Amino acid sequence: MKYLLCFSHLSWNFVYQRPQHLLTRFSKHYQVFYFEEPKIGDSDRYIVNVQDGVYIVELLITKHDEHTNAKIENFISGILQEYEIKDYLTWYYTPMALQFTKHLNPETVIYDSMDELSAFRFAPPQLLQLEEELFKKADVVFTGGYSLYQAKKDRHHNIHAMPSSIDKSHFGKARKIQHEPEDQAHIGFPRLGFFGVVDERFDIELLREVSEKRPAWQFVIIGPVVKINPKDLPQAENIHYLGPKTYTELPTYIAHWNIALILFALNESTEFISPTKTPEYLAAGKPVISTAIKDVVQPYGNAGLVQIIDDADSFISAAEKIFSDTEEDHWLRTVDHFIEDDSWDHTFQKMNRLINQVQKYIMTKENLKKQINHV
User: Fold this and answer.
1) DSSP string of 275-305?
2) Which of 164, 175, 184, 172 has the alpha carbon at shortest distance from 348?
3) How far apart are the first and last CA of the chain?
4) Backbone angles phi, psi at 33, to 5 degrees
5) Per-residue pLDDT tens for 57-92?
6) Longest dimension (CA), the chain
7) pTM for the structure as a whole
């Protein structure tokens, strides 16, 4: 069994998204170690737990100082020794991890660029420089969407767009679920819902304006609030913040919405995002309203599967059109045809094929080098 060491800026149990979908599938072929971003703890140590077949490594330090990277290096070396890891691949979600992984000697280096992290709030100033270094080290690069691919395609010789996909059977449950979660059951109709991280990308003002103009419409917001002050979120009788829910629970909430929302502001932090929730909402059978995020407009908006809006008035018009739609069955058949071949299994297979090709190329190159040296 080969090993895959993944270094991420996301905690495994934060929100179930791209890393979890992909790495649980890769764990059938590799022993996967998922290193979370170092965080402050009561002592300098690491904790390893196994979830979904993946070894989750929590890295704890008492404080951030000039010794932090050396400590993390030692932790990683300790894990390699403890688990007798010799042949391995490295997989990066964040270039910041290069600061404590330069001592590693992987067979293959993979960079899965799921977001433009440098555009996010509180992004470290050295991130862009480290990303440039990671592009030089990487044997293969994937991007989380087409717009991000267009922005980065000239920076690496082996880069591929791998948009986030869907677990159709999981979200498809929403089409049949009858029971309703207690914290949503009391909320009236019509319901317009959003799930995801509520952060600097969230369009606070759009929610505020639409909820004021349509006080009878009920807005359900599911997900953790991070990097913004919760007090800045609009408060009204028709806005309901239900907090984070597990991935397993999501279909039970979506099942009872009339419309699903992609409420992202158009700013530098959303320029290259490819929201996973778009196909998930569609798999759940829900009409979708979205702001003009590039990777939602193309392909979903242009295919007529998602209503694209640019302000509160166009949002209201789109919602009213959906409420009065008598052709929902036709729309749903179109959706199902469109997402028919879309799955995390297919995305995994394409990525794994490309990684295997790279490994074969590296092996062939090394064998040739040995032959030349022998001669």
Assistant:
1) -THHHHHHHTT--EEEE--HHHIIIIITTTS
2) 164
3) 33
4) -110, 120
5) 999 999 888 889 999 999 999 999 999 999 999 999
6) 81
7) 0.92
- What pLDDT, on the 0 to 100 scale, is given for residue 119? 72
Q: Do domains 2-165+344-374 and 168-338 have the same CATH topology?
A: yes
Backbone φ and ψ for 158, nearest 5 degrees, come out as: -135, 70
What topology is assigned to 2-165+344-374 in CATH?
Rossmann fold (3.40.50)
CA 349, 354, 358, 361 torsion: positive or negative?
A: positive
Quote the distance between the C-alpha of residue 335 and its chain's center.
Answer: 22
User: Coil, helix or strand for 37?
Assistant: coil
Q: Which sequence spans correspond to the domains of the chain?
A: 2-165+344-374, 168-338
Q: What is the pLDDT of residues 217-246, one digit of tens each?
A: 999 999 999 999 999 999 999 999 999 999
Q: Which string of b and e fits 14-51 if b means at least 16 CB within 10 Å?
A: bbbbbbbbbbbbbbeebbbbbbbbbeeeeebebeeeee
In degrees, rounded to 5, the angle at the alpha carbon of residue 120 between the alpha carbons of residues 118 and 124 is 55
Provide the CATH topology of domain 168-338.
Rossmann fold (3.40.50)
The type of residue at 96 is: M
Residue-level length of the chain: 375
| Helix segments in 42-126, DSSP class H | 68-82
